[in-house]
Amino acid sequence: QAFVAPNVSEMRGDSTVMWGTQVKRNPNFGKLQGGYLFPEIGRRRTAYLEANPDMADRIISLGIGDTTMPIPDHILGGLEGAVSKLGVKETYSGYGAEQGMGAHRT
Fold first, then answer.
1. From CA 86, how far away is CA 27, in angstroms rounded?
2. CA 28 to chain centre
3. What is the pTM of this model?
4. How far apart are CA 9 and CA 21, in angstroms?
5. Are 22 and 8 spatial neighbours (Cβ–Cβ below 8 Å)?
6. 82-100 pLDDT per residue, tens
7. Which of 13, 40, 56, 105 has its CB surrounded by the most CB atoms within 10 Å?
């Protein structure tokens, strides 16, 4: 029989603690409607563009993307280079500042 971890929030009666962990749950997650988030983002983007058609060329979509095509070589090269730097103490950078890493800003 499979092991099932106890539901910590039920044990404590505390809905702010995530199931099976001691991690505090962001209360905003409870405000999300059921279902997959990307269709909702798509609906809101479409509604915004209908109300603001002049903004169509200014929207940068960070949605699901086109997974039917391989990742372009220049992107793969950048990812591979950045990842390899994380494996060496001398080039390890950790997280960048909230504004992003200075070397990547122009």
1. 33
2. 15
3. 0.36
4. 9
5. yes
6. 899 988 999 887 776 676 6
7. 40
